[in-house]
Amino acid sequence: MFALIDCNNFYASCERVFRPDLNGQPIVVLSNNDGCVIARSNEAKAVGIPMGAPAFEYEEQFKQHHVHVFSANFALYGDMSNRVMTILADYSPEIEIYSIDECFLKLQGFNHYFSLQQYAEQIRHKVIKWTGIPISIGIAPTKALSKLANKIAKKFSDKLKGVYIIDTEEKRIKALKWLKVEDVWGIGKQHTKRLHAQHVFTAYDFTQLSDEWIKKNMAIVGLRLKYDLQGKPTLDLEETQAKKSIATTRSFETNYTELKQLNERIATFANSCAEKLRKQKSCCNSLMVFIHTNGHRKDLPQYNRNIVVQLPFATNSSIEIVQFATRALKQIFKHGYAYKKAGVIVQDFTPEEIEQTTLFETRDKRHISLMKAVDNINVQFGQQKIRIASQDLSRIWKMRQEKLSPRYTTALSDIITINV
Predict the structure, then answer these.
(1) Can you give the pLDDT at residue 359?
(2) H-type helices in 56-168, by residue range?
(3) What CA–CA distance (Å, rounded) separates 208 from 194?
(4) Is 211 helix (H, G, I), strand (E, B) or coil?
(5) b vs e for 279-312, b when ≥16 Cβ sit within 10 Å of the residue's Cβ?
(6) CA-closest candidate to residue 97, choices 240, 228, 242, 279
(7) What is the CA radius of gyration of the chain?
(8) For residue 280, what is the DSSP state?
């Protein structure tokens, strides 16, 4: 059996943990630079705030319905996610963290020793008590069915108390007939169009299609999904793998016109990529730098360029990667344009313990111990206490976050104080 644990309205729930006065109130969380809505509480959904809604277009509706608006506080959300996942790891030796607010547990054979209903209720009670984050739990013989069970647990939470188990054939068929095919895990818009053309409108209809049609139109991935929905375990837990590329990109709070401004942003992005490389113990052999003007400003001239640089040696040194990235920027930068977005993508990884030397150029080995010391200091004393000189020394990210809540769990200055 598999269990899928999903945090309910996770970003909004994180805000409510430290602001209980917001319980029952509509909440939305905005994307980087307070651009658009990326998370909504059920109350915000009920008043008609759509996902992806541009914040500036919905300001009147926010006021009209007394919607509480927050800038994305990823330091808080990441820490709260880690707390939830740490608790869940105690309930199974096999765990897959699927996203910041979702986690699969493998409960193979647990039903021989426990009541899965009581076990799930115990998990839910502990997570809520220890973190304040409400969760829904779906349990079923396969991963895809556990996803479906979780949807039912969340949809009918008041009746089911946040837990639903598909443990009979009757429950499986009933659940499949209830779920629309476009809501099936792994079926996107294009596949939905093809399936509707075949008069397939529910998950049950999908399981009745022939293997040949599914394999031809949806490849082996679609076939595995069908078997999983039929109750035949096909999709197992996935091991966490190192990323094959790492990107750091941002939209700017205002248009940039000078090379100096872009150079600082590219240096910061490159440094961030290097830190992530070291964290997964990889080195990159190439990187890409891109710059974009604002495509929404039709009154301004447009210019979008990128450049891929093959590095003379593999490295994860912030110093070296920043040097290569800023040199690349100079090759594609043009005066006379207002730039709104830029980014750095590092790619073509090799393990850091494997070094392919070249005759004329190689990485500076002094950087290995230097970067280790820098990372240790930044972890101990706070993000970006030590930075590359070409970075802005006054701030880390230049993002508009006008409605940012305190970092209650990660910053000493933001810890709640109680007067008694």
Answers:
(1) 57
(2) 59-64, 74-88, 116-131, 143-155, 157-160
(3) 15
(4) helix
(5) eeebbbbbbbbbbbbbeeeeeeeeeeeebeeebe
(6) 240
(7) 25
(8) T
What pLDDT score does 166 carry?
94
Among the listed residues 95, 206, 202, 114, the one whose alpha carbon sits nearest the alpha carbon of residue 165: 114
| H helix or E strand, kind and range, residue 13 | helix 10-18
Edge-to-edge strand list for the sheet holding 68-71: 37-40, 27-30, 68-71
- Confirm if 366 and 320 have CB atoms less than 8 A apart: no
303, 310 contact by CB (below 8 A): no
Query: Minimal CA–CA distance to 32: which of 283, 399, 365?
Result: 399
> Mapping DSSP to helix (H, G, I), strand (E, B) and coil, where does residue 164 land?
strand
| Contact between 174 and 156 (Cβ < 8 Å) | no
Token pair 């150079």 in the structure block, residue: 263
Indicate the residue type of 296: H
Asked if residues 371 and 244 have their Cβ atoms less than 8 Å apart, the reply is no
Q: What is the pLDDT of residue 250?
A: 86
| Tokens found for residue 132 | 């304040």
- Asked if 345 contacts 321 with a C-beta cutoff of 8 angstroms, the reply is no
Q: Give the residue ranges of DSSP H helices in 247-314.
A: 259-279
Strand partners, 304: 292
pLDDT in tens, 346-382: 998 888 877 666 656 777 788 888 888 888 887 777 6
Q: How far apart are CA 388 and CA 407, in angstroms?
A: 25
Tokens encoding 59 = 């300001």
Token reading at 220: 């082996």
CA 364 from chain centre, in angstroms, equals 34
Query: What sign for the dihedral angle of Cα 5, 8, 9, 10?
Result: negative
Q: Which two tokens stand for residue 101?
A: 């607010």
- Phi, psi (5° rounding) for residue 54? -65, 125
- Reported as a single tens digit per residue, the pLDDT across 248-305 is 988 887 889 999 999 999 999 999 999 999 988 899 999 999 999 988 888 899 999 9
For residue 357, the model assigns a pLDDT of 62
Distance CA 280, CA 352 (A): 9
The pTM (predicted TM-score) of the whole model is: 0.71
| Residues of the chain below pLDDT 50 | none
CA distance 146 to 385: 43
